């Protein structure tokens, strides 16, 4: 066994991340430190690529902000990533969709994957975040 793989296996804490690929629209909840404060910022966009494996894996997300394309590379095992949500699954034929940088408007759209009834039954419903309201004490 390679020494680097061994160290990654033992020391890197594995995170629970959803399965996503190039073409999917995701939201990354990323912790940002400003002075002595810390907040969570959401970055939503289309995954252009996934690269690497193990502790060095990363992915690139592209979004359009005020008419300008913005890309950001996130390390997959970063301690600053709080969670990743998959919003839409895209249908693309490539694993790296760099061509999306050069197209605008309707050509930049990625077709959304449609799930059958059987697949929808296997997808877990989002957990309810609201707490039940308790009856007022009389």
Q: Numbering strands along the chain, what is their spatial order in the largest sheet?
A: 4-3-2-1-5
Uncertain segments of ≥5 residues (pLDDT<50)? none
Helix percentage range: 10-25%
Structural class computed from helices and strand pairing = mainly beta
Count of helix runs: 2
Cα-atom Rg, whole angstroms? Answer: 19 Å
Describe, in short, the structure shown.
The protein is mainly β and 138 residues long. The chain contains 2 helices and 5 strands.
Task: Please tell me about this protein's structure.
By secondary structure, the protein is mainly beta. It is 11% helix and 36% strand. The chain has two helices and five strands. The protein has a five-stranded antiparallel sheet with strand order 4-3-2-1-5, with no helix packed on it. Strand 1 and strand 2 form a beta hairpin. The longest helix has 9 residues. It is globular. The mean pLDDT is 84.
Keyword list:
36% strand; 2 helices; 138 residues; mainly beta
């Amino acid at each position: 066994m390679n020494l680097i793989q061994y160290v990654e296996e033992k020391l890197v804490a594995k995170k629970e991340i959803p399965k996503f690929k190039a073409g999917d629209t995701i939201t990354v909840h990323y912790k940002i430190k400003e002075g002595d404060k810390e907040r969570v910022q959401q970055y939503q966009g289309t995954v252009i690529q996934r690269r690497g494996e193990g502790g060095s894996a990363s992915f690139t997300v592209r979004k359009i902000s005020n008419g300008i394309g913005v890309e950001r590379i996130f390390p997959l095992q970063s301690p600053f990533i709080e969670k990743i949500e998959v919003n839409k699954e895209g249908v693309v034929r490539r694993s790296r969709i760099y061509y999306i940088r050069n197209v605008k408007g309707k050509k930049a759209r990625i077709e959304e994957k449609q799930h059958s009834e059987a697949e929808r039954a296997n997808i877990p419903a989002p957990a309810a975040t609201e707490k039940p309201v308790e009856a007022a004490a009389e």
